[in-house]
Amino acid sequence: MLFLLAAGLTLVFGIMDMINLAHGSLYMLGAFLASTFVALTGSFTAGVLLAIPATAVLGMALEVSVLRTLYARDHLSQVLATFALILILNEVVRLVWGSDAALPMPAALSGPVELFPGLRYPAYRLLIIGVGLFIALLLYVLVTKTRVGMLVRAGASNREMALAMGVNIKLLFTLVFGAGAALCAVAGALLAPLFAVQVGMGENILILAFVVIVIGGIGSIRGALVGALVVGVVDTIGRAFLPLAFGLVFQPRVASAAGPAIASVSIYLLMAVILYFKPKGLFPARG
Amino acid sequence: MKKSIFLIAVFSVFPLVMQATDHLFYVSFASRVMIYAIAATSLNLALGYGGMISFGHAAFVGTGAYVAAICVAEGVTSAWLGWPAAIAVSALAAWLIGAVSLRTRGVYFIMITLAFAQMTFYLVNSMKAYGGDEGLTLPQRASLGFDLGNELAFYYVVLFLLAATIFLLYKLINSRFGRVVNAIRENETRAAAIGLPVFRYQLACFVIAGAAAGLAGALLANHGKYVNPNVLHWAQSGTLMIMVILGGVGRLWGGAIGAAVLLGLEHLIADYPIAWLAALAPNYQQHANLGVGAVLLAIVLFAPQGIAGLLSRKRNAAA
Amino acid sequence: MLRLEAISKRFGGVVATDAVSLEVAQGEVHALIGPNGAGKTTLIGQISGSLSPDEGEILFENRKITRLRQHARVAAGLARSYQITSIFRSFTVLDNLALAVQARSGSSFSFWKPVAEETALFGEARAIGDEIGLSSKLDSTAGNLSHGEQRALEVGLALATRPRLVLLDEPMAGMGPEESQRMIALISRIRSRVTVLLVEHDMDAVFRLADRISVLVAGRIIATDLPEKIKANQQVRQAYLGDEVAA
Fold first, then answer.
1. Which chain C residues are Cβ-neighbours of B250 within 8 angstroms?
2. Can you state the angle between helices B176-186 and B198-224, rounded to 10 degrees?
3. ipTM given for this complex
4. Which fold has domain C2-241?
5. Residue ranges of the domains in chain C?
6. How far apart (Å, rounded) are the C-alpha atoms in residues B312 and B306?
7. Is B192 on the interface with A (CB under 8 A)?
């Protein structure tokens, strides 16, 4: 799921050269919209499916109205403006929905599934993994095999050339942004039953998404996938094993205090180390 | 210069007036504004003059705050020891973080400073011995030899430190160092090509900014007699950035103006209901951030030089 | 004074610099010519230190500088100017030059004393300003200068670091005939003090100024010789000069 957010983010940054902090807010919007639609239609699937285009439309509206003017501006202005958007969107959501909303897990998927004899795994999480892989595949096909995908890749690696070759940049940008928003919606809606749907949920995951694309290299979807996997693995390992490892080496009191801290820090440490040796990430789209 | 002396005079008399009219709360509020002014000014040095968009500045403020708090909590109540310690530790943190981060550029730099800030946040959050996520309360404010629990005394100390900070910044930007930092911000490639070791100067600038932030943090901890990990959260970095851009990036009084305006507005909105606005949206005071966001957006889009910029433009136009 | 030994550089699959060996003698004006895309700026970048060669050695005054950082090379007396004007646009012309002088003279870890008081610094900056012909424009903002004036400032910045060897990357780029004449005069003035490696397309200037010419085509040096010999060189004419350049 982290991959979905990261992919959208890396595309927007890679192609439009824009740092969009409000990306997490789109994720939040997706979750809130999904909760409304699910409540309206009574069906989990319908609700989620409706939320996707709705969020995409909102995202594109945002792009056309506000974000367009930021493409030409420097990164600091983009950071500040999209940070302002986070504040505004957070409050708008609070006004419309209140501080949180409910999106319960569909009953059919809430039980575990037996993958192998003896290995049971929550069905819902399987769904998430499945959707994630499916979309990764879809994106891969889209980006590498279709014309649109080629335009996207061209834009990511050299925007001036793409412009010079007459690509309708404005439309392309809007569509890319819409696609990014749609990805956010999928992530937001699907993750909602697992984590709480609340104002501010976007920011926490946003940082992780940025860490992912920085590790993976900005502008590269492959980088986003690798980055998301790496981050996920490191995080899990870190949380699971570092406290154990510490316990072996240090006294119990120190270990129990320091272990969890180091675990949550491990991802950032990883990013720092990677950037130290490869200041542009693992697979930068631009040379 | 004359303007500054006038301002200092006003600010010196202000608390006495407040005390006389029994509005001591405003003295405490003013102290808080000035502390944030110091923090925002320190960010302005790194960001406005140095061109280093650090989204992790809150880490240095927070580090200073925690060092100062821990000193008092552990019985070291002398501010002469505690506050320089806070400055030193923050400077060290800035040195370490800067040494790694400044090898990157652009968005990578922004992200890595953000990440480091988050790291310190999580680290501090897990320090159960010092309150963890519940924070740490100080039994008293540190002492400079005279009691700082007295609001007026504390106010004057903060006022002095703010004046000193701005004065030092003024000296700095006009010095050789200031020129180099400006040049690097403007054209880093050429700066290197004329023989300036860019990394060294950027790191120095970053460390000085971090040290000043540490001072602000120490004052903050003492002001409220309380710290908690939220002071290190990246949203705080964002707040400081808002202050800087509001007040004027790269302008001497930018940090101070921004802090005053932002905190002032927050206070006004929270404590002084506007009747017609309340009629429109009954809960508007809880959604103050909407206004902040809108104002920030407007400034970024239409007045990127901030308030200080607008003021100086008006002056130039009138002249 | 400057010696390149089999310098090579690749960018992905593209060989930008192909085993280039070059020698610049002290006191000469050595021109480097070649078609667009031959790799001249890449070579300059490697000599000045902003790019790192994959193979080979660079020696400056018999000292290996291949691994030396750019700012250290400037301190050693090796400066460059840029093909695409790269100046400090919001500074005045005087401040631009003063900055370069400041970079060379002592540490800038000075936090207290105002720069404005350093008269020696500004005196020297003025002198350079006169030399490059911008004495009437010293207080203008650099960004407001005409193209030709900016190119002069570009060279001035390099000169202000008091180099012993200066790399001029197409100083006449985009200049009209009058401005070009002024630039030629400037280079003629400085050649007694400073060794020059000049990259240029303006053949008139090249043949008037150069003591020797090297020709770079597709990353390799195909000839290094006196100007008349280069003019007559068949390979060079085919690759670059063409037959229009009369004797």
1. none
2. 110
3. 0.84
4. Rossmann fold (3.40.50)
5. 2-241
6. 10
7. no
